[in-house]
Design goal:
about 180 residues, 3-stranded antiparallel β-sheet, 2 helices, about 15% helix
Length: about 180
């Protein structure tokens, strides 16, 4: 498996490092909205098509995207049928060869489906979760800062538990947010 890529499909972009997986639904943007760029023939996706984009190409394209938000479409890179990502600020065109060999992990076998039973769904403040996790990393067992997360119900605080290097128990609560 290759973990250096972004799996681009018709409906989503998915990345993983083997431990964390993030998937972002793609907003449908008509190819015709992207400015005309010499050499750009837009890649078309059928259902089930997947293109692996090397992360270095994606990062290079991201750097080339103009920071001024004069036209929202310019905040995107276009995928060409020629295996390149295209960016433009209407004066300059960036082209980034993105093709990546290999096979992306089968994330669908790990992704819960709509009918997968849940224990609880809890909304929480991501910044507060980062603070708590940072505390466990800074003060927990340096070898393996493992944290146990317990969910009780959607209205109750979630509990995080770990241990310090000298085996002292650490317990933290994070209050839920309304979804």
């Amino acid at each position: 498996y290759t973990l250096q890529g972004i799996a681009i499909e018709r409906e989503s972009a998915t990345v993983t490092d083997g431990h964390i997986l993030v998937q972002v639904a793609l907003a449908p943007l008509p190819d015709a909205d992207f400015p005309i760029v010499a050499g750009l023939e837009h890649k078309t996706f059928s259902n089930g098509d997947q293109v692996l984009v090397h992360r270095d190409a994606a990062l290079a394209a991201l750097k080339a995207i103009p920071h001024k938000k004069s036209m929202p479409i310019l905040q995107n890179a276009a995928m060409g049928a020629d295996g390149k990502l295209y960016t433009t600020d209407l004066e300059n065109v960036g082209q980034f060869k993105h093709e990546l060999e290999g096979k992306f992990p089968n994330w669908r076998q790990e992704m819960p489906t709509a009918d997968t039973p849940t224990v609880a769904e809890i909304g929480f403040d991501a910044k507060k979760m980062i603070q708590l996790c940072r505390y466990f990393v800074d003060h927990g067992d340096k070898r393996t800062p493992i944290v146990k997360l317990t969910l009780y119900d959607a209205q109750s605080a979630m509990k995080l538990e770990g241990k310090t290097e000298d085996d002292q128990a650490i317990t933290a609560l994070l209050m839920p947010c309304k979804l």
